[in-house]
Amino acid sequence: MAGTDDEAVAAADDALYVLTAVLLTPAQFPSALGDDYPEACAALGLPPRADGYGLVLGQDGDGARWTVVIDDVSLVAVAIASWDCGMEYELSPDERAVVTALPGWPLAVAVAAPGVPAPHDPAPESADQVPLSPPDTSTWGPAQRRLGADEIALQWAVWREQIDPGDFSSPGERAEPEQRTAEPAESVRDGVEDGPASGHQGVRRVLAEARAYVDSPPPLGRVRSSFAPGDARTLRADGPGWSIVARTDDIAFVLLDEEPGEVLPIGRGPELPGLLEALDKLAVRPL
User: Fold this and answer.
1) Are strands 189-190 and 262-266 parallel, antiparallel or unpaired?
2) What pTM, to 2 d.p., does this model score?
3) Residue 147 Cα to chain centre, angstroms
4) I need a labelling partner for 91 at 20 to 30 A (CA). Which of 50, 78, 212, 265 fits?
């Protein structure tokens, strides 16, 4: 999502040319920053405020990268929705809404403000901390695994249509791997389970840890629920070394840190529907 290049907002008494903005709330936060909302906040040195934050990413007049944190979440949400619809929206938060201005960007931004120097970190004398920088996604790890799960949730129909219903017909039998291209992973292969009881050791561990969330709720944002067609919900759960993406009326996909680039679909089976329903009940949802 990106705003227009020539928008400006007053932050810390300096002009900021707004390039983009993102939400940092319990239900919607950049997955690359952490498995849950408190972890994502900690990556920016922020306390996990109940109502969340809006992050405004831009450049100052010298071209330096800054992330302005504001507490007017609804303003950022409206701006993002407008930009996503191709509409112009001048994101100009009141100075009273500014929580802090952080040097650097926590996420990669592909655009730059016109008429100023190329994006660069602020000079040390103008910042009182090490500049933020995007997580390393050049190799497989937690950040890339979570971004891969984001992509599956965003392109659910594309991923789902690649799964043949016949793949789930034999319990414990795995489908032949296929080479696929997906972002952020360079290549993705699949292995199919016929339900939660099937034989992939990593999947069994993930499902056991996800079930434990039902009895002992995890940190805020570990389980998130968002809109899906019909009466279903898109469910996202993360944990140490794993991510789950599922539709409450369909199957689930698992990604593991220990299996680079692999996406493991899980069939409905006898147990998955109940687990997804229970997780959806404790999940946080966008307002």
Assistant:
1) parallel
2) 0.82
3) 6
4) 50
What's the CA angle centered on 123, arms 118 and 124, to 5 degrees? 150
Nearest to 259 by CA among 137, 164, 144, 135: 144
Residue carrying the six token digits 């995007």: 134
DSSP 273: H
Amino acid at 7: E
Do 276 and 233 meet the contact criterion of CB atoms below 8 Å apart? Answer: no
Identify which of 50, 47, 66 has the alpha carbon closest to the alpha carbon of residue 58: 66
pLDDT digits (tens, 9 = 90+) for 222-261: 999 999 998 899 999 999 999 999 999 999 999 999 999 9
Exposed (0-12), middle (13-18) or buried (19+): which is 140, by Cβ within 10 Å? buried
| Assigned token pair, 274 | 């109940």
Q: Extract the tokens encoding 151.
A: 């992509």
Query: What is d(CA 176, CA 266) in angstroms, rounded to the nearest whole number?
Result: 15
Q: Determine the residue type at 4.
A: T
The predicted pLDDT at position 242 comes to 97
According to DSSP, residue 180 is labeled B
Q: Where are the domains of the chain?
A: 7-126, 142-282
